[in-house]
Amino acid sequence: MKTRIFAILLALAPPGATLAQEDAQLIGDAERGEQLFRQCSGCHQIGPGAENRAGPHLNGIFGRRAGSIEGFDYSKGLERAFQDNMVWNIQRLNLYLENPRSLVSGTRMAFRGLKKQQDRDDVLAYLRSYTASPQDIPESAPTARKREVDLPPEVLEIVGDRDYGEYLASECVTCHQTSGMDEGIPSITRWYPEDFVIAMHAYKQKMRPHPVMQMMAGRLSDEEIAALAAYFADLEE
Amino acid sequence: MTLNRRNFLGTGAFAAATLAAPMVRAASHGKPKVVVVGGGAGGATAARYIAKDSNGEIDVTLIEPTRMYYTCFFSNLYIGGFRELSSIGHSYGKLASEYGINVVHDWAIGVDRDAKTVSLAGGAKVPYDRLILSPGIDFVDGAVPGWDLSTQTKMPHAYKAGTQSELLKDQIMAMPEGGTYVMVAPPNPYRCPPGPYERVSMVAHVLKETNPTAKILIADPKDKFSKQALFEEGWQKHYGGMIERLGPDFGGGNVSVNADTMEVNIDGEIVKADVCNVIPAQKAGAICDAAALTEGNWAPVDGHNMQSRMDENIYILGDSSNQGDMPKSGYSANSQAKVAAMAVRGSLTGSRVFPAKYSNTCWSLIATDDGVKVGASYEPTDEKIASVSSFVSQTGEDADMRKRTYEESIGWYAGITSDMFG
Ligand SMILES: Cc1cc2nc3c(=O)[nH]c(=O)nc-3n(C[C@H](O)[C@H](O)[C@H](O)COP(=O)(O)OP(=O)(O)OC[C@H]3O[C@@H](n4cnc5c(N)ncnc54)[C@H](O)[C@@H]3O)c2cc1C
């Protein structure tokens, strides 16, 4: 993908744009970034048709004003960044990916951070391919996530009983923190309910490998999974 | 079973009983009162959940003698040098200030089940509508001849964390070069099945660094033990030649000690110990006996809700309870506490009661970044809490997976302690 984008950039580049092209190429390996981005995809979508989930969609993130997507319920931290007129440039995104809370205290993005510069570069290269010129390139591969497991529509349509979800969730929060902290054990708060349901069924069907989660999900009924999804979707810190 | 709103409430004898007697009012006509004895994995969780979920409709009193609770979980990691002792100490401040729990630092010394009061060492009597007991373990008298509580300073058990853990660690650090650490392991059932073996791993880890010619000897009354293949593989890999275990075939079950001479008699053979870690046979916390709620060493409960089989107003959680297949672990106690909290609330305020589900996972650290785990999920039957599915780490796993397992345990520790203490 990297080589293709670079080639297309060259073809489209106006005269005198060599420097910019080199910068674009130097960010990192977008293909590897796409792999790494799976960690982010529980909360963020990117690519054609990307929508806001637990986190805002990331199309056009380079140069976007922080906290600026209409209708998305930002944390206080990002609202502050918006007021401060913070714009996502490569340096800020780099810092944010390294440790979200060190750049925006109070952000809900409870991600442990990518500690290696190479990993951050590669993810940034991937994000970059959906901002500015690359997004207009027709050949650019669609990256909207495919569902991991196929579920009948009636399973996805179950409206979870939030109270029951709250009781069932008491089992989850022995390990997963309600604050959304993401250390050793991933955060499960504020997921888009459908993503939550799909992930749990993926464990249940043993498509996802983790034995504890396979065991936990394995004994949950469709209704129980929906109840948990409903509870965690709007859990506040 | 597929659950829906219709059959939530219809499942199990207990749910029916709850429906039959909602909205119990306290004798004093005030708010219903719940008293929790023991602020550990079971008690702190139960107190917090009842206070948090009852929206002020229930008065919760937590009776716990210590001001700082040191978790047994991760106390072995302290011995191994992976944690500071202060990092496993937790205070009750938030339970009082954020959840409005009345935290009383005292010992419960008796329960008057007719009058429904708990008497405290300080002289007070605390009334309850429902009582939750989660006092952990005490030791069986005479289980290891020559050892009793008066010798626990010379031969620490470190099976209640805090001072005992510190003592054991200091003794290990002060071992002479090439000295011998002896562990007298407990018979089943006991608190934390992998606990003694995780401890041996952690002791080996520090000794390898500070005193590599030292030896570890385990006298064990059990034929086999939790995660045995994983521990043995790890010991071979990381601490080759340092650890020896004598099972019952080699007299490991026939042990007496002499704390004055620091001698351990294993089936007639005398071993001189530099450190002797005696973990005696265990029984329910003494308050369960005092309240006449035990049968043998443990307190029998109904697995649907953790209610004592001897008194419907009393619930018994964690290590003290005889519930069935769940191991005596912090994770189990925490899991049971949530079921009991829901049942207690339901019986006092008529709040919704859902069918019980329980689970457990126990992580153990074998060496730096080498973590393993075992776990199971459980459901109640009329006889007991029964295991329904389980998993265990595999031997030969790659280093990355073992490291992730260890990192997971750190996440779990943060999760469970905030679930207990807020
Ligand atoms: C070395 C070791 C390692 C362990 N590792 C793990 C692990 O990795 N994972 C895991 O899940 N579990 C682990 N455990 C087990 C875990 O610590 C216990 O199973 C758990 O603490 C049991 O909870 P509990 O509520 O029954 O008792 P406790 O947590 O012991 O709480 C009992 C409380 O009651 C108080 N109390 C006792 N009597 C009275 C009284 N009469 N009046 C008032 N208060 C009283 C005590 O002061 C104490 O605070 C480990 C245990 C040990 C020893």
From TrEMBL, chain A:
Gene3D superfamilies: Cytochrome c-like domain. It comes from the Bacteria. It comes from Tropicibacter oceani. Transmembrane segments: none annotated. Keywords: Electron transport, Heme, Iron, Metal-binding, Signal, Transport. The lineage of its organism: Bacteria, Pseudomonadati, Pseudomonadota, Alphaproteobacteria, Rhodobacterales. The keyword Ribosomal protein does not apply. The keyword Kinase does not apply. This is C-type cytochrome. Residues 1-20 form the signal peptide. Residues 28-131, 160-236 form the Cytochrome c domain. InterPro entries: Cyt_c-like_dom (IPR009056), Cyt_c-like_dom_sf (IPR036909), Cyt_c_1A/1B (IPR002327).
UniProtKB/TrEMBL annotation, chain B:
It comes from Tropicibacter oceani. Residues 33-147 form the FAD/NAD(P)-binding domain. Residues 1-26 form the signal peptide. It comes from the Bacteria. Transmembrane segments: none annotated. InterPro entries: FAD/NAD-bd_sf, FAD/NAD-binding_dom, FAD/NAD-linked_Rdtase_dimer_sf, FCSD_central, FlavoCytC_S_DH_flav-bd, FlavoCytC_S_DH_flav-bd_sf, SQRD, TAT_signal. Residues 166-280 form the Sulfide dehydrogenase [flavocytochrome c] flavoprotein chain central domain. Residues 356-421 form the Flavocytochrome c sulphide dehydrogenase flavin-binding domain. This is NAD(P)/FAD-dependent oxidoreductase. The keyword Flavoprotein applies. Keywords: FAD, Flavoprotein, Signal.
